[in-house]
Amino acid sequence: MNVVSKPRPIISAVIPAHNESQGIEIAVKQIADILTACVDNEWEIIVIDDGSSDTTYAQIGALSQLDARIKGIALSRNFGKENALLAGLDYALGKAIITLDADLQHPPSFIPEMIDKWQAGAKIVHAVKRSRQQDSAWKRFAAYFINHLISGLGGIDVKNSSDFKLLDREIVDIITHQLPEKQRFFRGLTSWLGFPEDYIYFDVAERQGDESKWSFWSLLELAITALTSFTGFPLRIVTFLGFLTLILGFFVASDAIWSLLNHQAVSGYTTIIICLLLIGSFVMISLGIIGEYIAKIYDEVKGRPHYLIKGSVGIDDD
Ligand code: UDP
Ligand code: MG
């Protein structure tokens, strides 16, 4: 049988979108124009609709009708940006894949520079945030805190990194085939791989469309995943707390015995209260930390897929 396969695009742009109806069309058009300038028509854009409740997917469908290089995948519900990205990587055909946000906060104007660095040999090109002027104060603080925590404890550098990246096909194949873990922290994983990397620097642009799609809780969730999937250090804190209470207990016990021998035994009420409170809180904290890891192990063991697809436009069956 003579199967004529379509040529592979050079660049795939992967865009996760959750309720982005206000800005998605402008974003796709801008990105398409820039890709055309870089690689002629050898590109594709895959928008992953991450369980939007607005018209995002319908708009992608319409764009796809007009231009077959624009493709859409609809997830059955909101699986979160990390999983949406992964769905995009699974279906992208390009020799290099660029991941970027639907709200144009990752300026597509940097794409040519990223492609240059890739052609010069980098397997991963990270776009690093030079400023975060557009983020609210608490978000800047949260980002600073989370990134430094992971960099410090997990031993990989994710400071100021973003999900705006170019990945070589080789890297994408590794991520999609060789890293079976369910809990993913995309930014950390790409640094962990250790292939030749390069960097570009960008200023975060103003958000197109309505406000950010991250709630406080989803950011907290991301931070916990980032930590627990990269380091067992918090578990060591538990051991540390245990030794601390042991040493403390040693002093308090000596004092108690001393008092007993000197016939002043009843004075220990305060000590007992302090001990109870300290030990109680250490035990609770420790249980909580262990619980976080057990929860992650539970998720891994269940082995459920990262995402489920309910429909697609422009994606070939094979
Ligand atoms: N996003 C997603 N699923 C979600 C939340 C966000 O696919 O559950 C997408 C969103 O549509 C956007 C990108 O992830 O393309 C970044 O989201 P947002 O701009 O809200 O976050 P921020 O820029 O504040 O990091
Ligand atoms: Mg944004």
Explain what the structure shows.
This protein has 2 domains: 11-213 and 305-313, Spore Coat Polysaccharide Biosynthesis Protein SpsA, Chain A; 233-302. The model has no long low-confidence stretch (mean pLDDT 85). Strands 7-5-6-4-1-2-3-8 form an 8-stranded mixed sheet, with helices on both faces. It has 10 helices and 8 strands. With 318 residues, the chain is an alpha/beta fold. Helix content is 50%, strand content 16%. The chain starts with 10 loop residues before the first strand and ends in a 5-residue tail after the last strand. Helix 5 runs parallel beside helix 8 and helix 9 packs antiparallel against helix 10 (269-302). It has helices at residues 24-39, 56-66, 81-91, 111-119, 137-154, 169-178, 186-192, 216-230, 233-261, 269-302; strands spanning 11-17, 43-49, 70-75, 96-99, 124-131, 161-168, 197-203, 309-313. Uridine-5'-diphosphate binds at residues 16-18, 20, 50, 78, 80-81, 84, 101-103, 105, 212-214. Magnesium ion is lined by residues 101, 103, 105, 207, 212.
Overall average pLDDT: 85
Strand content: 15-25%
Q: N-to-C terminal Cα separation, in Å?
A: 16 Å
Q: Quick one: how many beta strands?
A: 8
Topology:
Layout: E1 11-17, H1 24-39, E2 43-49, H2 56-66, E3 70-75, H3 81-91, E4 96-99, H4 111-119, E5 124-131, H5 137-154, E6 161-168, H6 169-178, H7 186-192, E7 197-203, H8 216-230, H9 233-261, H10 269-302, E8 309-313
The structure holds uridine-5'-diphosphate and magnesium ion (MG).
Uridine-5'-diphosphate (UDP) binds at residues 16-18, 20, 50, 78, 80-81, 84, 101-103, 105, 212-214.
